[in-house]
Amino acid sequence: MGRFGVTEIIVLIIIAGIIYFAIKQKTNNTNTGAVNKHYLQSQIKSSGTAYLLWFFFGFHYAYLGKWGLQLLYWITFGGFFIWAIIDLFTLSGRVANHNALIFQQIDEIEKRDRDAEQTRNLAMILAAKGN
Prior knowledge:
Layout: H1 6-29, H2 33-42, H3 47-56, H4 60-63, H5 67-75, H6 77-80, H7 82-129
Helix pairs in contact: 2-7, 3-7
């Protein structure tokens, strides 16, 4: 008695994972727009790096955050090299699409920040006038 079995250890690991992700989700929801904006800017990808990863390691889908496609790419040996050749011509477009989504999110954050600043400025003007 007093010893943990395999089942108990697995349950403890699952509970610890749930607690970790719950805390992580809570802290992500309380971040300011500036932090999210800087995080998004760090996620912008380079076509040159994607092509290098494609050529040397076949690691370009993982670079873009698409791990499911990456595993399928590796399991099928690049779609029996047909998929690899197609990726040679479409990779820059995939990187551009990835970056376009990020730029759109950054624009939304900047718009929200501008609106909030405009509201604060208007409130200060109205308070200074005494209304």
